[in-house]
DNA sequence: GACCACTGAGACCGATCTGTCTCTTCCCTT
DNA sequence: AAGGGAAGAGACAGATCGGTCTCAGTGGTC
């Protein structure tokens, strides 16, 4: 009953206390505080206090704050691929439908209040140092994202899978980033239409007429 | 000789010292340090030291660090619109060419090493508080971006200017964000092709065949 | 030459940062 | 019942944070 279907990406609530181990409580609290408020803006004392855990318990489980951050991101990355696999599994053998389903699911997430974009991109924004443990986790997640997009684009028969993958990656990253300044009523609402246009353009034969399937009931 | 043509967005170099006022030196240094390393990661003492300025001179010009950050972003926003206007001015009366020129210029910037995406999005990432002065500047910049995209999309004759504007905003934000984790060899290279596809899809009549103009010499 | 506003230099403040150490309590196992 | 390991509580350290204050120098203006 931890990661429910309604909370596909975010993971369990931060207040699951007492019954779990200090380490789990710390990770839950770190997930909540670091994501909502930013990593630099949240101190160890606050994490420890909100988790209801002694400070020494933190340093018994993690060698440093940086490693706690990396662990928080690593767990979040696992949840992210869980979500991805769940969405993809709904359309087995139909890569085009899988790509569209991913964008639709992300769009739904982006319109929710309280969502603050991609934890990996946000962490990379806060930590420019190339060898920071948090950045390593974030970059690994992004490499995997690009790899999966390429695989799906290739399976869907895109003329240039690498390019379609990069275009979709741009749209995903744009959705993540746009909520930071525009909020949940911003351009993220255009994600599905944009992705559909990209996919159409890449899968249609060059001289084939454009079939504008999502045009009539479009947003705005 | 300050903001040269070769350095369209970034502004003057940080080491323009001595001759300028303490306030200008502080803004130059803040622009360099805050953008490269992040805002929370750079303390007042470091800014003051790198600028070669007394700490009191900072607090004589700015009431707080937050206001220095806001001033840095405000100046940067002005440089951003200077760049925009310059690019747009190259194709007077041709909004479609203007949109494409903007994406091409941004792509060129995105491929440069040392570029670390959008200072406004990055600042918004670091400061989630809704009433932070830096956030206010960042959000104003983004509102203006969206407004300008809508105006250009409308002038270009898009079927749905608001939607095309949002799609292009997504691509811009995606380009900004993607360099944070993928670096300058990441999916940002697909920006121009993606934007061209979006524009094509929106400006072509629904039953018109797709004219894939940038396909033959595409990247990858 | 006197005056004055501005600047640099640096001490200083309280708060907060990450991380360490000690001591006590509690629960589980045998 | 006894023992032991884990965890809570909190003091403590050293560094750094943003911000204030004082004082000496300096360059320009009447």
Walk me through this protein's architecture.
The structure is a homodimer of 220-residue chains. The first copy, chain A, has helices at residues 22-37, 44-51, 55-61, 65-89, 95-110, 119-126, 133-155, 161-182, 191-203. Chain A is mainly α and 220 residues long. In chain A, α4 crosses α5 (95-110), α4 (65-89) runs parallel beside α7 (133-155) and α5 crosses α7. Chain A is elongated. Chain A starts with 21 loop residues before the first helix and ends in a 17-residue tail after the last helix. Residues 1-18 and 212-220 of chain A have low confidence and may be disordered. At the A-B interface, α6, α7, α8 and α9 of A face α6, α7, α8 and α9 of B. Chain A binds a DNA duplex (30 and 30 nucleotides) through residues 22, 43-45, 52-60, 64-65.
Estimate what percentage of residues of chain A fall within beta strands. Answer: under 5%
* Sheet/helix structural class of chain A: mainly alpha
- Give the assembly state of these chains: homodimer
Proportion in helices of chain A: 55-70%
* Low-pLDDT residue intervals, each spanning 5 or more residues of chain A: 1-18, 212-220
**Radius of gyration computed on alpha carbons of chain A:** 19 Å
Largest interface: A-B, 63 and 64 residues
Keywords:
homodimer, 220 residues, mainly alpha, 9 helices, 63% helix, 0% strand, disordered N terminus, DNA-binding
Topology, please?
2 copies of one chain form a homodimer.
Chain A: H1 22-37, H2 44-51, H3 55-61, H4 65-89, H5 95-110, H6 119-126, H7 133-155, H8 161-182, H9 191-203
Helix pairs in contact in A: 1-2, 1-4, 4-5, 4-7, 5-7, 5-8, 5-9, 6-7, 7-8, 8-9
The first copy, chain A, binds a DNA duplex (30 and 30 nucleotides) through residues 22, 43-45, 52-60, 64-65.
């Amino acid at each position: 009953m931890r990661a429910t279907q309604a909370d596909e990406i975010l993971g369990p609530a931060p207040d699951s206390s007492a019954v779990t181990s200090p380490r789990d409580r710390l990770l839950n609290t770190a997930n909540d505080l670091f994501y909502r408020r930013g990593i630099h803006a949240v101190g160890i004392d606050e994490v420890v206090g909100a988790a209801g855990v002694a400070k020494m318990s933190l340093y018994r489980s993690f060698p440093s704050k940086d490693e706690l951050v990396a662990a928080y991101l690593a767990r979040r990355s696992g949840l992210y691929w869980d979500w991805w696999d769940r969405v993809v599994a709904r359309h087995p053998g139909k890569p085009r439908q899988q790509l569209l389903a991913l964008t639709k699911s992300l769009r739904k997430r982006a319109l929710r209040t309280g969502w603050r974009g991609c934890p990996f991109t946000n962490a990379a924004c806060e930590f420019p140092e190339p060898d920071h443990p948090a950045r390593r986790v974030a970059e690994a997640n992004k490499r995997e994202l690009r790899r999966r997009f390429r695989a799906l684009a290739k399976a869907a028969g895109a003329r240039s899978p690498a390019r379609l993958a990069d275009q979709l990656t741009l749209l995903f990253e744009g959705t993540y980033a746009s909520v930071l300044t525009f909020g949940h009523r911003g351009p993220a609402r255009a994600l599905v239409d944009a992705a559909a246009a990209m996919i159409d353009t890449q899968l249609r034969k060059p001289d084939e007429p454009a079939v504008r399937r999502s045009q009539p009931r479009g947003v705005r």
